[in-house]
Design brief:
The chain folds into 3 domains: about 325 residues, Glycosidases (TIM Barrel, Alpha-Beta Barrel), CATH 3.20.20.80; about 200 residues, Class I glutamine amidotransferase (GATase) domain (Rossmann fold); about 45 residues, Immunoglobulin-like (Sandwich). Helices cover about 30% and strands about 15% of the residues. The chain starts with 7 loop residues before the first strand and ends with a strand. It is of the alpha/beta class.
Length: about 650
């Protein structure tokens, strides 16, 4: 990744501010009102032409760029940069009518028809031919346009079409498998096809894991998830190569979706394909909704390698796609935006600029709502624009490494939540989020990092439910502990290798010797069942009858009730100046707190906040800038921090520059 042009303009540092802009939805005379309001709000950048293919190419090979030329010129004349989309996110009606073979097919064999968006197969050669022709035409036309700041490949790749089970996908999957395994014998070994008479004689016999009589081969399912992420990554590369050839100096990105349960795309792998990381994030209702926002922004910043990134979309207020779409409370819009900035975003953008009059997203909030400029929401937008201008010095500041890391691994996420497991109640991201929330409650900064991150920078590393552990990964974690690091891992970790084959000899498999424990059988809990621990906490979802097999292991908590009563629940093995700890049940944020107190004390990790602020505010550091974020709805006295304010209002954010 390089430093994108939008981070600096004429040598001036600034935080960019803007939105998706869809002028094609409005009459021409509205556009002038738009740019006047944009300037009032402090907008500096917009994403343009995202869903414009049908307008740009109304018939095959016939282009209409006049309206886009005018929009680009108008934005440039008003000092607004353009992140120009390639417009390939949704094919136009003429293409799907002439070529229905581009339409995706679900696992039950049903065609995904036009009428929504993203109705295309990532592996369709027909779709790719038409899409790349449009990309070439756009790059040729706008290569020298002064408003062009970055290219925006497609939009939210994989949001609706990550898993396609069509014949095109089957052919591409076979090609991917040939490249991965080389021989059918190697594939049979990796997939364990001796089970259920699944042994293949030729790659041409293999299909995607379509609807089957019972659970499809789990190794096949895991590889299909890997393939599906790679197929979209390959499509991203194809567009990028066209853009590179025609506009080599214009940075290229696409908007990730590091948020909620969106898990089909391995963004740790994709991050190397873009010039700068961009992300879309929308809060999901729930008791940890703001913590999840912080978690996802944190992970995005680490996917970017600590470099600044682009928040491409979030919402000013309500969205349109949840069962009940709740408006944001006063202060939440600014707090959400500034939390992303705290974790490395140098651009804060929304979907969308002007709230739509028609279509499926007409009730999704915008920067300019249906009520117009004379509205509380637009005044809040304008106030946020002014705040971002005041924080211009933050732009370009790298994220500052925290003392603790939480490891996040897409392969484990995929594998943990597959079928035919001891429990279907396991939720990988929720477990990781619980540890993050507990650290916030303790006032301890943590980085959420991809698996391949250099862990030596961290005093403590938490690897929740790290299920897929190749031998090389087990060695890495062993070396981390041997060199003085403090590892914490949890139930259902270290269980399988990269092929989803169980590490034999007892659980937790690949980590058994490092942890100094052995488990013969899992004891998952039924809904409503609880296992009490002797430290006053209780576990749900999962327990294990842990046996200590190494004298260096300390038992930090023991089960009091249930089938595992009397067995260790939390252990720590001391290894020189390092340690390896294991938590064998789901404790939730409150139950994790006493465990972290004990484990982080040995690692020498302390909160940087005064005692009365721990848990009440989040502290995030970018270079010389400390972001103090009020996690609650009531005011907090932060005078002890020596910043520019004493009382931080509910949902408020203050930046202290040292």
């Amino acid at each position: 990744m390089t430093s994108p042009r939008w981070l600096r303009r004429d040598g001036e540092a600034r935080l960019e501010f803007g939105a998706d802009y869809n002028p094609e939805q409005w009459p021409r005379d509205v556009w002038d009102d738009d740019v006047r309001a944009m300037r009032e709000a402090g907008v500096t950048v917009v994403s343009l032409a995202i869903f414009s293919w049908a307008r740009l190419e109304p018939a095959e090979g016939e282009y209409d760029f006049g309206w886009l030329d005018e929009a680009m010129d108008l934005l440039h004349a008003n000092g607004i940069l353009v992140d120009l989309a390639t417009a390939t996110a949704s094919p136009p009606p003429w293409l799907s009518t002439a070529h229905p073979e581009i339409l995706p097919v679900d696992r039950e064999g049903r065609t995904i028809w036009p009428g929504g968006r993203q109705h295309w197969r990532p592996t369709s050669p027909v779709f790719r031919t038409h899409a790349l022709r449009l990309v070439h035409a756009m790059a040729t036309r706008y290569a020298a346009h002064p408003a062009l700041s970055a290219w925006h490949v497609s939009n939210e790749l994989g949001c609706h079409n990550i898993y396609d089970y069509s014949d095109d996908a089957a052919r591409a999957f076979r090609g991917w498998l040939r490249a991965r395994y080389h021989t059918i014998e190697a594939l049979n070994d990796a997939w364990g096809t001796a089970f259920w008479s699944q042994r293949y004689a030729d790659f041409d016999q293999i299909l995607p894991p379509r609807l089957a009589a019972t659970h499809p081969n789990p190794s096949q399912q895991l590889d299909f998830k890997r393939f599906s992420s790679d197929a979209l990554k390959d499509y991203l590369r194809a567009e990028k190569e066209v853009l590179r050839s025609l506009t080599p100096d214009v940075p290229v990105t696409t908007n990730f979706m590091v948020m909620g349960e969106t898990k089909g795309m391995d963004y740790a792998d994709w991050a190397h394909e873009v010039d700068f990381v961009a992300n879309d994030h929308y809060r999901l209702p729930g008791p940890q909704d703001f913590d999840e926002l912080s978690f996802s922004a944190n992970l995005t910043g680490n996917l970017a390698g600590g470099r600044p990134w682009f928040l491409m979309e979030h919402s000013t207020s309500a969205v349109n796609w949840q069962p009940i779409n709740v408006a944001k409370k006063p202060g939440e819009m600014a707090r959400d935006a500034l939390t992303h900035v705290a974790h490395g975003a140098d651009a804060v953008c929304y979907f969308q600029w002007r709230q739509s009059k028609a279509g499926a997203e007409k009730y999704h909030s915008g920067m300019l709502p249906h009520a117009g400029t004379d509205s509380a929401l637009f005044r809040s937008v304008t106030a946020l624009g002014a705040t971002l201008r005041d924080l211009a010095d933050v732009a370009g500041s790298p994220r500052t490494t925290a003392p603790v890391a939480i490891v996040f691994d897409w392969a484990s996420w995929w594998a943990v939540e597959q079928d035919s497991h001891p429990s279907e109640r396991l939720r990988y991201k929720q477990e990781a989020l619980d540890w993050y929330t507990a650290l916030l409650d303790l006032g301890i900064r943590a980085d959420v990092v991809p698996l391949e991150t250099d862990l030596s920078r961290y005093a403590a590393v938490i690897a929740p439910m790290l299920h897929v552990v190749p031998a090389t990964t087990a060695i890495r974690f062993g070396d981390y502990v041997a060199n003085g690091g403090h590892l914490i891992t949890t139930y259902f970790s270290g269980i399988v290798d990269e092929h989803d084959h169980v590490w034999l000899g007892g659980y937790p498999g690949a980590f058994r010797e490092l942890l100094g424990i052995r488990v013969e059988e899992f004891v998952p809990l039924l809904d409503g069942e609880v296992a009490e621990l002797d430290n006053g906490t209780s576990g749900t979802v999962w327990t294990e009858p842990v046996e200590v097999v190494d004298s260096a292991v300390e038992v930090l908590a023991t089960y009091k009730t249930g089938e595992t009563a009397g067995k260790p629940a939390v252990t720590r093995r001391v290894v020189g100046s390092g340690s390896a700890a294991y938590v064998s049940t789901r404790l939730g944020p409150a139950g994790i707190l006493p465990v972290l107190d004990a484990l982080l004390d040995r690692a020498g990790v302390l909160s940087e906040l005064p005692g009365d602020l721990r848990g009440r505010v989040e502290l995030t550091v970018r270079g010389d800038h400390q972001f103090v974020i009020n996690r609650g709805d009531g005011p907090v006295d932060i005078g002890a921090l020596g910043g520019p304010v004493t009382d931080l209002p509910g949902r408020g954010v203050v930046v202290i520059t040292r």
